[in-house]
Amino acid sequence: MMANEKKVPKATLQRYPVYLKALRKLKANGVDRIMSKELGKYVSIEPTTIRRDFSFLGTLGKQGYGYKVDDLIRIFSDELGVNFDEKIILVGVGNLGKALLNYNKWNHVVGEIVCAFDIDPTIDAPVPVYHIKTLKDHLPEGCRIAILCFSSNVQETVDMLVDNGIKGIVSFAMEHFTVPAGVSVRQIDVVASIQELVFETNSLEN
């Protein structure tokens, strides 16, 4: 029985992505099978909690044998309904863009940044960098997500991204832009976040 057929506590649902991330890391390290006690140590969650969380998804393991990592990854991936091998591109390889590329730890969560685009393709980076004008030629097959880390001619670039199949945009750009229906945008405004945090902190002290 899957979680959408049985009411699952919110706390359990919040732990499912934690399990999936850990399982993908374990698989990358060559682990084929794991006991709830071992997984518990890995994610700092009690084995009894893990077994209870897993029970909402059916009978996943055998007592004394443990769980097959591949089976758990498949089940959790299906349950969460997310593509955890998403190919992401980054546009704008300035200081912020380079920082994100050097971090690029999403490969066990939602995929990874596989290449970048900039007006200067000679920039040294941990992934291939192409000129933005060659986007159509170098956009990875199936790529749907782009991260914007620049602040000039944003609308023109966004239009190009959308025309080439980008459906989701994470934007650090301060310049306003519009997208057609069917394209999602997440605006990241660090200054606004700090302002909100300062307000919240002040409220707690008063």
Question: Keyphrases for this structure?
Answer:
2 domains, 15% strand, two-stranded antiparallel sheet, disordered N terminus, 6-stranded parallel β-sheet, Arc Repressor Mutant, subunit A, Rossmann fold, single chain, alpha/beta, globular
Q: Mind explaining what this structure looks like?
A:
22% of the residues are buried. Strands 5-4-3-6-7-8 form a six-stranded parallel sheet, with no helix packed on it. It is α/β, with parallel strands linked by helices and 206 residues long. The chain has helices spanning 10-28, 36-43, 47-55, 69-80, 95-103, 135-138, 154-163, 190-205, and strands spanning 33-34, 67-68, 87-91, 112-118, 129-131, 145-148, 168-171, 184-187. Helix 1 (10-28) packs across helix 4 (69-80) and helix 2 crosses helix 3. It folds into two domains: 3-80, Winged helix-like DNA-binding domain superfamily/Winged helix DNA-binding domain (Arc Repressor Mutant, subunit A), CATH 1.10.10; 87-193, Rossmann fold. Helices cover 42% and strands 15% of the residues.
Q: Quickly count the helices.
A: 8
The helicity comes to 40-55%
Stated plainly, the CATH topology of the largest domain is called Rossmann fold
> Overall 3D geometry?
globular
CATH superfamily of the largest domain: NAD(P)-binding Rossmann-like Domain
Rounded mean pLDDT score:
86
Estimate what percentage of residues fall within beta strands: 15-25%
Beta-strand segment tally: 8
Number of domains: 2
CATH class of the largest domain: Alpha Beta
User: Which consecutive residue ranges, at least 5 long each, have pLDDT under 50?
Assistant: 1-5
As a whole number of angstroms, the C-alpha radius of gyration is 21 Å
H and E order:
HEHHEHEHEEHEHEEH
